[in-house]
Amino acid sequence: MTGQAGKAPRPLPPLPEPLPVEVFDSHCHLDAAGTPIGEALASARAAGIGRIVTIGCDLPSSRFAVDAAGGYERVFAGVAIHPNETSGITDAVLDDIEAMAAHDKVVAIGETGLDYYRDRAPTDDQHRSFRAHIAIAKRTGKALVIHDRDAHDDVLRILQEEGAPERVVFHCFSGDAAMAKVCADRGYVMSFAGNVTFKNAEPLREALRVAPLDLILVETDAPFLTPVPHRGKPNASYLIPHTVRFMAEVKGVDVAELCTAIASNGERVFGAW
Is residue 12 part of a domain? Predict the structure, then answer.
């Protein structure tokens, strides 16, 4: 079958060698992946990825995440309004997010936070939304999953001002070693994505080196941020072994040791699967 204008669709990367200990994808977007959920789960399982947390960015994608989690045993959900979608955000929208969070397979309030790179929403709206999501996470007892782009200082400040929930995850961690130390001191979990493998990502690797093993997760952010050696192709949960093996090399630990830590961290952050 060919794609639009007679072009063949881009081939998906091949299945990598499976991981020696099962881990999970802490953050992806199954609604944007273009692959049936059953197929995504099967390929992930074959690579040693047992579970997937699919994340909402607005009301429709949050509802998708809840429905996917309800329909598939190994799918779990995060619900939130992404900072880029917060322009004019209303209490009714936030109430809808909190109502969805009551589902027993919603394990996270996220992705929420601040984005000063794209600047698609007024700063005041982003701050109001972030503070509201922090409150929702605390009321519901769910982990808070943070999107932080070019906004490190304000994200950290608002967490301190509001009082952080018991479990905080920096999705696609983008800080340097100094920020990683701050997060470690506060007990915040750092989730690393495929961009840690990129050639120009040495500050991110320095952060990974100082991040404690018990505060590390791995994610795809699929279909984005595909790790080397498949950068530029569609990302998917089954490609996590490339990122994990690279992370283990950076940390100077055995792959199985890192996998075991990630699996344990996941249950501590998101609850017993």
Answer: no
Q: Please give the pLDDT value at position 151.
A: 97
Which range of residues forms the domain containing residue 92? 18-270
Single-letter code of the amino acid located at 54: T
- Structure token pair of residue 235: 């990302």
In a domain, 5, yes or no: no
Cα 71 from Cα 54, distance rounded (Å)? 13
Q: Give the C-alpha separation, 250 to 179, whole Å.
A: 18
Burial 156-180 (b: 16+ CB within 10 A, else e): bebbeebebbebbbbbbbbbeeebb
The total of structural domains in the chain comes to 1
148 HSE (CA, 13 A, CB side): 26
CATH number at residue 115: 3.20.20.140
Q: Which residues of the chain have pLDDT under 70?
A: 1-10
| Confidence at residue 5, expressed as pLDDT on a 0 to 100 scale | 45
pLDDT recorded at residue 10: 64
Per the omega criterion (within 30 degrees of 0), is the bond before 36 cis?
A: no
First-last CA distance in the chain? 38
Q: How many CB atoms lie within 10 A of CB 259?
A: 24
- Mean pLDDT, the chain, integer: 95
Residue 221 within a domain: yes
Give the tokens for residue 229. 């050696």
